[in-house]
Amino acid sequence: MDCPFCGKEMKEGRIPANQQLKWYDNTVDTVMGEGVPLSGRFRTAEAYYCPDCRQIILPVPEVESVLEMMERKLSAVGGKLEAAQKQWETRKSQTKEQKKKKDFGSKDPWEL
Ligand SMILES: [Zn+2]
């Protein structure tokens, strides 16, 4: 990436953090407010550095929030449950059908 200030190629690197790096609007409380996550699950933010201008460019990654992750996992589980239920229902109707055929064959056609 080229530096937007001097136009030279920026150094590619990363910023490791002990917890997820977040950016906060100055009007927002850093404890209670919602920040923009800058590092992903591995807590390292990818960043570009220009030593001449002493500037860092940090592309904001698409980080899944805990709520989004839970929703995704829940819907995956829901899908599996639905599939299992459908499979069970088809199996049930198949055995019913087989039983019906069996009963029909063993019955005396004159006996009603
Ligand atoms: Zn620069």
Structural features, described:
The longest helix has 41 residues, at 66-106. The model has no long low-confidence stretch (mean pLDDT 85). The protein is 37% helix and 18% strand. The chain folds into two domains: 11-57, no CATH class; 64-107. The chain is of the alpha+beta class and 112 residues long. The protein has a three-stranded antiparallel β-sheet, with no helix packed on it. The protein is rod-shaped and about 100 Å long. It has one helix at 66-106; strands at residues 11-16, 22-23, 36-37, 44-50, 55-57. It contains one helix and five strands; from the N terminus they run E-E-E-E-E-H. It binds zinc ion. Zinc ion is lined by residues 3, 5-6, 8, 50, 52-53.
DSSP strand tally: 5
Radius of gyration: 30 Å
Bound molecules: zinc ion
Strand order of the largest sheet: 1-4-5
Overall pLDDT level: 85
Beta-strand percent range:
15-25%
Instruction: Specify the structural class.
Output: alpha+beta
Termini gap: 86 Å
Order of helices and strands: EEEEEH
Biggest β-sheet, characterized? Answer: 3 strands, antiparallel
Percent range for helical residues? 25-40%
Low-pLDDT segments, ≥5 res: none
Question: What is the number of independent domains?
Answer: 2
Shape, per Cα inertia axes:
rod-shaped
The DSSP helix count reads: 1
